[in-house]
Amino acid sequence: MNVNIKIIPHSKQRYPTCGDWFYDANSNLQIRVSEMSDGRYEQLVALHELVEAELCDQDGVDEADVTAFDVAFEKRRVAGNDDEPGDDPNAPYYKQHQMATAMEKLMAVTLGVNWQEYEKEINSL
After folding, report:
1. For the segment 49-95, what is each residue's pLDDT rounded down to a tens digit?
2. Which residues of 66-81 are buried (b: 16+ CB within 10 A; e: fewer)?
3. Rounded CA gap, 15 and 75, in Å?
């Protein structure tokens, strides 16, 4: 399997998200990260998506179920709500998302990223 990570304009995401992962027709992992002002932010999102995808694969959580949950979550999002779909305990990938976020936060500290500023930019996309 190959892993392909691309930084793209936020408007090119499949749905409103700063990070997305899916498998292509050749079973290669594709990760899409929204372009941001700081490359470290993009690296953090890419890390999160990679960890989440790998843990979902290991635990038998289907990518189609993850995407369907995220799309439905975004459709019912209320203005001003900045929650991430994966933080909903009903998310089929809740456990995997939590671990990916923990890894992301560890890396943020290592890279010297202010988590509040990082989240502020993500929420402004």
Report:
1. 999 999 999 999 999 999 999 999 999 998 889 999 999 999 999 99
2. bbebbeebeeeeeeee
3. 9
